[in-house]
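General statements about sequence and structure are easier to judge against a single worked case. When preparing material for the folding task, we compiled for one chain both its residues and its backbone structure tokens. The amino acid sequence and the backbone structure tokens for this protein are reproduced below:
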Amino acid sequence: MKKYNLSKIMKRAWELVKVDGMDISSALKKSWKEEKSMKEENIIETLKSKLEEMASNDYHINLGIEREVSEKKWEKNGQKRTYLSINCYTLSGKFKGSYKCGYVDMVTNEYVCGKYDDVNAADKEYVGR
């Protein structure tokens, strides 16, 4: 399975060359960077939408009344990750608890659900601890 649409990347690079007057090397670098950032945003948004659906419909997620999906960006020693979680609150806004939902490795653009996570966002299933 292809990760990126190479035709789209090349077309965007040539567009940058023709319209913006960039050289081909810079244009290719820029189009690759744009494509990678789009893919990162897409995977996180997809996982967040799955978690939002799961937070309201899954009977395993039963802390509090109000539930929101949150993301936390983390960076250290060249590693970049975005952690996902479902935070639960009472009706008055008091924090009740949270469910860990894994993280997205921004370097490899891969979703990882560890053994200490409560929810697998990719498969929309409660795995518990």
Q: What stands out?
A: The chain has one domain: 6-126. The chain is about 40% helix and 30% strand. The first strand starts at residue 66 and ends at 76. The longest helix spans residues 24-57.
